Amino acid sequence: MKAKQILTGLVSLAVAAAVVGGVRFGLSGLRSSITQAEQQEMIRFMLPESTTFTPEEYTGEDETIAAVYKGETGYVVETVTNGYAGEIRMLVGVDNDGTVTGVTVRSMEETWGLGAQALTDTDFLIQFLFTQGDAEVGENVDALTGATVTSKAIARSVNAAVGFVTGADTTSSATSWGG
């Protein structure tokens, strides 16, 4: 009798694990499609004059550039650079004239209350709009208070995106530590 109860419990546990595994497997495709849809919407937001975007292979030397999407009026460049505490992943819209049309920080692992402000501090991010690869912290961009390394890493990403579109050397004064 006791062996039958143990066997019933094990079978129930195996069935529950199979159900949970099946649901997780079934939802993984949904999660992926939602993430892709969100990415496409954000790309359209970065370059509002374009309606369709085509991924382009990037074979350049700038390790900051992770992906490039070509629209009718410019490009959206996905960048990944090192901040103070980890990688900062961004999308930067740049029109065909080399002018920044949109900047968003997609993810980061910066210090809460300092560098992590770059996710929500619109006054900081808006400084990069309408620049043309000349974003330099301490010159024409005010750093986030207490987050100079993060600020320079973001400037480097913006400048790299503009440099991709224009072909110009747009390196910033970011420290080797901060990107």
Category by helix and strand content: alpha+beta
Total of helices: 3
* Unreliable stretches: 172-179
Oligomer: single chain
Q: How are the strands ordered across the major sheet?
A: 1-2-3-4-5
Share of helical residues: 25-40%
For the secondary structure, the number of strands is 5
| Biggest sheet layout | 5 strands, antiparallel
Order of helices and strands: HEEEEEHH
Instruction: State the shape.
Output: elongated
Distance between the termini: 67 Å
Q: Rg to the nearest angstrom?
A: 22 Å
Mean model confidence by pLDDT: 78
Strand content: 15-25%
Task: Explain what you see.
This protein is of the alpha+beta class and 179 residues long. It has helices spanning 2-46, 122-126, 148-166, and strands at residues 54-56, 65-70, 74-82, 87-95, 100-108. Helices cover 39% and strands 20% of the residues. Strands 1-2-3-4-5 form a 5-stranded antiparallel sheet, sandwiched between helices. The longest helix is centred in the first third of the chain and has 45 residues, at 2-46. The model is unreliable at 172-179 (pLDDT under 50).
